[in-house]
Amino acid sequence: MYLEGLDQLDRKILEALLGNARYSYSQIGERVGVSRVAVKARMDQLQQRGIIEGYTVVIDPQKLSGAVSCYLDIQTKPDALSQVQQVLAGCPEVTQLYRMTGDCRLHVHAVAAGQGELERFLRETVDPLPGLVSAQVNVILSRIKDIKGLRL
Questions:
Q1: Rounded Cα distance, 31 and 16, in Å
Q2: Residue 112 — pLDDT band, cuts 50, 70, 90?
Q3: What's the whole-model pTM score?
């Protein structure tokens, strides 16, 4: 993938971070062939430009006892879309929320502690959404491939 505004060193640093975001500046420097000071300066610039948004821990919900992970495709009436986005963005079960192409469509990833919490979320949050046209729920059975970030 060709990204404007990134030189070869930026790409190497980002590739190292995508492999392991816990690498120290020194470890990244060893992998890309520059000093830790140069790595820190580049990473600071990438953060200031918003290319690196943050560092986080990725938890696999399927490894947690009883956790249920699902994707929802939601369609709303046009005048309710903004309100629905706000409601879903405020839900602790919702981990990702995307506006998609098509007629007022949202793609949602949600994680619940168990089947009961998922049913409650659907009944108390999704079903009464204002202007709801349709909501398709797909429970994730297993994770085959899950890439974080983007391919450089």
A1: 8
A2: very high
A3: 0.68
